[in-house]
Design brief:
alpha/beta, Rossmann fold, Dimethylsulfoxide Reductase, domain 2, Barwin-like endoglucanases, six-stranded mixed barrel, 23 helices, globular, molybdopterin cofactor binding
């Protein structure tokens, strides 16, 4: 970019696990990063940055940042390390791995990553080629969106759905299980613009979030009951004669069977299951069907209970039943990801995976490390990058127990000495986004975004890409992918000949900084006005035949084999949550409250949760509790409280509020256990059980008790 006043300006792209993927501009002066602002030219993010990113340049200079490789010098978890060189770190890793491979085989080594960085070159999948070449255990990564993706792909196929920018044309907007103001901020102005044009905003969420408070109508089902609610809506649409029969006849498959399935879910029955009044169920059905275009934005939180992914199949049926897809701005938005021309095979190299290689899921790390699953060979080395499982994974106490094993050789690539990194044997310092090149796709809009290196890395930090090159050389791998530069990798992982790019090339993207893929403009895109769904039938598939459960390949290093393959219910349905007072009364005798753990407003998962000013803005770990539940436990607003079950516990400060319904508490995640009141955080109490499809997590399907803490 241009140069002025002694400063240089570079294209930036937010690397974080957020649907907005903000286009940014870095300002560098005298070799230092002195400013980061939003790129005003970007049509979706429009120059704005969220509270997490607005001082991103200063984050690069946090005094606690890791700048040099470290080797553990004290007990695991003590945080005691000594500085070593990169040569020594890489040689140590290579020597330990060769010993492990010689004794146990290469599958005794397990990579572990997620969306701490979304980039194609530096992020979640960046290590796939190296570990697939090494022959390690395949890492299945299903923290979020896997269950919704399986449901989506089974029902409507790999379509990007409604353009988020097209929401300005909608007249009835439903935001289901998403807190847009905190986690999808740049979509919110499009929703507000639609409201100015007369649209109604409906939020379906079990608690009263910031977004729910800003809506025209908040519908609050009991946690995990969304599938029943969606089937109740289907029932009410059918019984009130609101079905778009022409669209259903032409562009859906299995309506008769769906109608029979939904017949049992009368509004009165659904009120018993969900707590949503029968008249509200009928009213929603009437409005959603008759106020067109109507559109649903599906949040990833919808999948986080035993029946969450099945619920999403039912939600996917709603726009087709009433013909919402006919209109610009009508239909359903899950993730635009599916239409991006990314060469995932080239990015992950699944051709190097040896037949029969096992798969271990991220959510089961505690079990994998502590003998809770039959693994032969056992995990003898863990390599963690782009994630912080001791904060973000379920059953974290069990993970900590596993990380303490003296026979487990753990390597962590990080920016800070996180709760996970404290248990490492070797810590490798990673660059931040202003210090490397990368290419960003998005799961919230239709733009590719290029991230330019603006400054040299601080200290001895290295990009993930360079880390893989060094390890590949250490392990004797001379394949071409391990000698390509970051710019070459950015270009290589995109299918530039794909029609979605309309003839654009990498040079064009580098110059502009972002590029909208060619999927039709937001004022004209109506991808399924005439059907054309990318499913086997070309239709919305309410009914499936012989479908098997699966995790989409990008979530599992592009490995197609060793899927779980359980039979999938032919129709959308309601699977009750596992842990509620109604479904598990014996457990509820001990732990009577449901807990919801949404993302924090001031943190990005666990990123920034160690920044004092971010903690000040977010507030210390809090627990929202309904006044009735608080009174029963002699808890007052501001009291320190302990939340616990038989899996673990954490402490926080009580916020007594009607924002949480009676019987439900809310505690946002991301807080570091080492910085909390006690050595615990929200996911200490979370079960590692999967949802029904896509091996999705069940973070919102847990029972706990709350007591005042001394």
């Amino acid at each position: 970019m241009n140069e002025q006043s002694g400063s240089q300006f570079f294209h930036g792209a937010c690397p974080h696990d957020c649907p907005d993927t903000c286009a940014m501009v870095y300002e560098a002066k005298d070799g230092a990063l002195v400013g980061v602002v939003g790129n005003k030219e970007h049509p979706f993010t429009r120059g704005g940055l969220c509270v997490k990113l607005k001082d991103f340049h200063a984050h690069h200079y946090n005094p606690d940042r890791l700048l040099y490789p470290l080797r553990r010098s004290g007990p695991k978890g003590s945080g005691q390390f000594e500085r070593i060189s990169w040569d020594e770190a890489v040689a140590t890793i290579g020597a330990r791995w060769r010993d492990i491979i010689g004794e146990f085989g290469s599958q005794a080594i397990m990579p572990y990553s997620y969306l701490g960085n979304m980039g194609l070159v530096q992020g979640i999948n960046s290590g796939d080629p190296f570990f697939n070449r090494l022959g390690s255990t395949v890492n299945e990564k299903t923290f979020c969106a896997s269950g919704s993706s399986t449901a989506w792909l089974l029902t409507v196929g790999p379509t990007g759905g409604v353009d988020p920018e097209s929401f300005v044309h909608a007249k009835y907007i439903v935001i289901w299980a998403a807190n847009s103001i905190s986690t999808n901020l740049h979509h919110w102005p499009f929703v507000l613009e639609a409201r100015k044009r007369g649209a109604k905003i409906v939020v379906i969420d079990s608690c009263r979030s910031r977004t729910a408070k800003a809506a025209d109508w908040h519908i609050a089902p009991k946690p995990g009951s969304d599938g029943a609610l969606a089937l109740g809506f289907i029932n009410a649409i059918i019984e009130q004669g609101l079905v778009d029969e022409d669209y259903v006849d032409r562009h859906t498959y299995g309506f008769a069977e769906l109608k029979e399935r939904a017949a049992d879910f009368t509004p009165d029955y659904v009120e018993e299951l969900t707590g949503v009044k029968a008249e509200d169920i009928k009213r929603f059905a009437m409005e959603f069907a008759t106020i067109q275009p109507s559109v649903i934005r599906v949040g990833v939180a919808l999948e986080r209970s035993a029946g969450g992914a099945q619920a999403i199949r039912a939600v996917c049926a709603l726009p087709a039943l009433v013909g919402s897809w006919r209109h610009v701005g009508g239909g359903l938005l899950q993730m635009p990801l599916w239409e991006f021309p990314i060469d995932w095979v080239k990015a992950s190299r699944p051709d190097w995976i040896r037949p029969g290689t096992r798969v271990v899921n991220n959510l089961k790390l505690g079990a994998a490390l502590t003998g809770g699953m039959p693994l032969d060979p056992p995990i003898k080395s863990l390599f963690v990058y782009c994630t912080n499982p001791v904060s973000q994974a379920p059953e974290t106490n069990r993970i900590v127990e596993g990380l303490k094993r003296e026979d487990l050789f753990t390597v962590v690539s990080e920016h800070f000495l996180t709760d996970t990194a404290k248990y490492a044997d070797i810590v490798l310092p990673a660059t931040m986004a202003g210090e490397h090149d990368d290419m960003m796709w998005s799961w919230g809009h239709f733009y590719l975004t290029y991230n330019q290196k603006a400054i040299e890395p601080r200290g001895e930090c290295k990009p993930s890409s360079q880390m893989w090159r060094l390890l590949a050389r250490e392990m004797g791998f001379d394949d071409p992918v391990f000698s390509q530069t970051d710019e070459e990798l950015c270009a290589a992982y995109i299918n530039w000949d794909a029609p979605q790019l309309g003839g654009a090339d990498f040079a064009h993207l580098k110059e502009q900084g972002f590029l909208r893929i060619n999927v039709g403009g937001p004022d004209e895109r109506a991808p399924h006005a005439h059907g054309n769904f990318p499913t086997p039938s070309g239709k919305v598939e309410f009914l499936l035949h012989d479908a098997k459960n699966f995790v989409a390949p990008p979530f599992r290093m592009m490995y197609e084999a060793e899927q779980s393959g359980e039979p999938v219910d032919p129709l959308p349905g309601y699977a009750a949550p596992r842990e509620t007072p109604q479904t598990n009364p014996a457990r509820a005798e001990l732990f009577p409250l449901n807990i919801i753990s949404p993302k924090s407003h001031g943190f990005l998962n666990s990123c920034y949760a160690n920044e004092p000013h971010k903690i000040k803005g977010q507030g210390e770990q809090f627990v929202i509790i309904n006044p009735g539940d608080a009174q029963n436990r002699d808890i007052r607003d501001g009291d320190p409280v302990r939340v616990f079950n038989d899996r673990g516990d954490f402490q926080g400060v009580a916020r007594v509020s009607e924002d949480s319904p009676q019987g439900v508490i809310v505690a946002t995640l991301g807080y570091w256990r080492s910085l909390n009141r006690s050595d615990g955080s929200v996911n200490c109490i979370s079960s590692d059980a999967w949802s029904g499809l896509g091996r999705a997590p069940t973070f919102s399907d847990n029972l706990v008790e709350v007591r005042r803490a001394n």
